[in-house]
Amino acid sequence: LSRRGVRKLQVLSLRRGLRDAVASLPGLESLSLSGCYSVTDAALASAFAAELPALRRLDLSLCKQVTDSSLGRIAQSLKNLEELELGGCSNVTDTGLLLIAWGLKKLKHLNLRSCWHVNDAGIAHLCGGGEARGTPELEYLGLQDCQRLTDEALKHAATGLPNLKSINLSFCVAVTDAGLRHLARLPNLEDVNLRACDGVSDAGVAHLAESGRLKALDVSFCDKVGDEALLHATLGLSGLRSLSLSACRLTDEGLERVARLSQLETLNIGQCTRVTDRGLR
Question: Domain named F-box/LRR-repeat protein 15-like leucin rich repeat: which ranges (predicted)?
Answer without folding.
Answer: 54-184, 188-280
